[in-house]
Amino acid sequence: MKKALLFLSVSISLFLVNSCYYDNEETLYPNPVACDTTDVRFSSSIAPLLQTNCNGCHSKASPSGNIVTDNYTDVKTIVDNGKLSGAINHKPQFSAMPKGGNKLSNCELAKFRIWIEKGALNN
Asked: How large a percentage of the chain has pLDDT more than 90?
């Protein structure tokens, strides 16, 4: 009986010690991809993000919600009226985008924010 109790105690102790494992980002992802926001431009940073995340539903061919994101002029319009920032940042009273998808990464959101803060230039 003592051996069974000892075995049970050791087993429970090992289980509890192993269940307290703490995930840390550096251990799980030893070589993270850096977020490069040094030279955010419409053509090299923003247009590719729009192509990947928006243009499938918001192109001239299929302008869902009458929003078009496949050209600078239309994108500048939704930047100026606040709809782009509101939607991608999932702000209240805006339709969260991409619809049915995950929120953009912090890096992607930073690129949009930087580009908008610099005047949302067609560069």
From this structure: 69
